[in-house]
Amino acid sequence: MNTIFAKRRNRLLAMKAIRDNYMSGEKQITCPKCGQESQRKTVSEALSVCPNCGYHWPMGAYHRLSSILDSGSFRELNARLTAADPLAFPGYRAKLTAAQKKTGLNEAVVTAVGAIGGRKCVTAVMDSRFFMGSMSAAVGEKITRAIEFAAKTKLPLIIFSASGGARMQEGILSLMQMAKTSAALAKFSEKGLLYISVLTDPTTGGVTASFASLGDVILAEPGALIGFAGPRVIQQTIGETLPEGFQRAEYQEEHGFVDAVVPRGELRETLSRLLCLHEKGGRV
Predict the structure, then answer these.
(1) DSSP states of the chain as a string?
(2) pLDDT the model gives residue 240
(3) Model pTM?
(4) pLDDT at 204 (0 to 100)
């Protein structure tokens, strides 16, 4: 019976991955970095990476999970948890409904337990298509629950960040998630468990200033924008021209903020090796 349910979960994940990564419209897609056109099918099969220059397009949460986790190992956590409207912000409920219909997601993060290379782990993947991956109270709650579940089951934790920062429609309640997630990670760390943070484009604002920067190992995808305030805001504030590539993943690696920049096609193998090196076992 468990095998049947596992197969059903795997098929559901695969279907969601196809839906999330499907690029509707013309058969050709133009790369914003090199300007070259490629077949959408080719780009999709390459994990949304430009075959000409290696530019990394944003990746849907379910599609990323399907590319990282072992087949049949996916089990979603807190799938029904979604944002409320605590401040009765004008138009917020309608925008939430529209975002849910457009993306098929309940919130800007998907959390799950699965395996990579046969080693169990807890994962959280932010999706920038949903309110630009902004951190609502529900996003903070889902990530906190994932951290606590990983601590309880003594499993390693992997969080993929992609966010524009706090969700303005929830005001201070959104900002409070910075402290909430960081506190949960502090308790997680006290147990001696492994936390791998993967920074994707973009990782900015309160997410960068909290859980995204607290990993035991911090990886980043090529070209990812990583920082608290964006480079344009910083440049306008200080009145000086910033270095080329400022706040991009490669710049952050050079200055010690990121441990390694890993292309998307190599990410699963890299994570598998890290889990193997830090293996301590666990139970679900």
Answers:
(1) -HHHHHHHHHHHHHHHHHHHH---S-SEEE-TTT--EEEHHHHHHTTSB-TTT--B----HHHHHHHHSPTT--EEESTT-----TT--TTHHHHHHHHHHHHS-SSSEEEEEEEETTEEEEEEEE-TTTGGG-B-HHHHHHHHHHHHHHHHHT--EEEEEEE-SB-GGGHHHHHHHHHHHHHHHHHHHHTT--EEEEEEEEEEHHHHTTGGG--SEEEE-TT-BEESS-HHHHHHHHTSPPPTTTTBHHHHHHTTS-SEE--HHHHHHHHHHHHHHT------
(2) 87
(3) 0.90
(4) 96
